[in-house]
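Hi L.,

You mentioned the student needs an example of a multi-chain input paired with its predicted structure. This one should do, with 337 residues in total across all chains.
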Amino acid sequence: MQHPSLAGALPEGRTESLAKALPDTRFSLLELADRMLSRGVVLAGEATISVAGVDLIYLGLNVVLSAVETMQERATPVPQPLPPQGEKGSSGGSEQVRSTG
Amino acid sequence: MLHVIASTRPPAGRAGLRGQPLRWVGTADAGGWATVWNSPDTRLKADDLLDHHAIVEAACALSPCLPVRFPTWVGDDATLAGLLSQRRADLEAAMQRVRDRVELAVTALWTDPEETTPSTPRERTGPATPGRRYLQERQSAWRARAERRQVGAAMARALDEELNALVADARHAVCPTARVALSSALLVPTGRAADVRERIVKLGTGWPGVQTIVNGPWPPYTFATIGEDDGLAPAP
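Structure written out for the whole complex:
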């Protein structure tokens, strides 16, 4: 069963596990989307992977949606394929700190 | 489209995005779960993003996994096999790092998103000319931002101290946007996620001026990094 607070935020038919992982609001869904779009393994250093010299769709590193706040302003996160020669985005110049426990 | 790198093949019958075939490309040790994209329509939608997440979750439920940034397109099986082969050592190391671990996301949102006047305003003297007023406003905003950064950094330190023994890795972004005081990703043992979550919620209730939201557990998106892309800047 879908979490009540996610009514309207999650498309119909989404899994219970997703609802459990996103307990709060639409904000949570957008934060997960931000993770998928801006984190994760990048296998190739280049922004595009080509076949026989023809560039495929731009990987859309941080360009599509760069921050939770930006995403929050959108009704739904819809990543759009970008032109092959698009510019790389940044994470907004925030102070990033990593620590190990 | 590549979704995840895992050490287990997808179960028979598991479909990729939009019901297209889900293919395994790799060796006996590790390989990628990839949708064979037959559709001429490559315009991605929110449903595709969520289905990608479902595939990643399924892979991570079976074995250590490394989510791949969405969307990652690879031309053909040979290209993917080549990429996996080139980064094999890095991928194996990364998979060991996230083995039996999940990610929790902590976000502290300012309850008052406006950067208001600092708590210790300086005495103002002299006529309030437009130029002087402008500079004073700039100074005031700068001081408010600096104070907020201090508060966010203190929250990050508090998280580290509270969860030191439970968290394998933590990455903090202090004031990444005007609305957010702290955005943290925590890599925690799968079996301790509920405990860690509870501790964060309890800790967050003691932070004035922010609303603390804990999301997850979900696959270790933030910690799926290899080689030179190995995460954020090191701690100073």
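You could point out the following to them. The CA atoms of residues 82 and 135 of chain B lie 57 Å apart. The mean pLDDT of chain B is 87.

Best wishes,
N.
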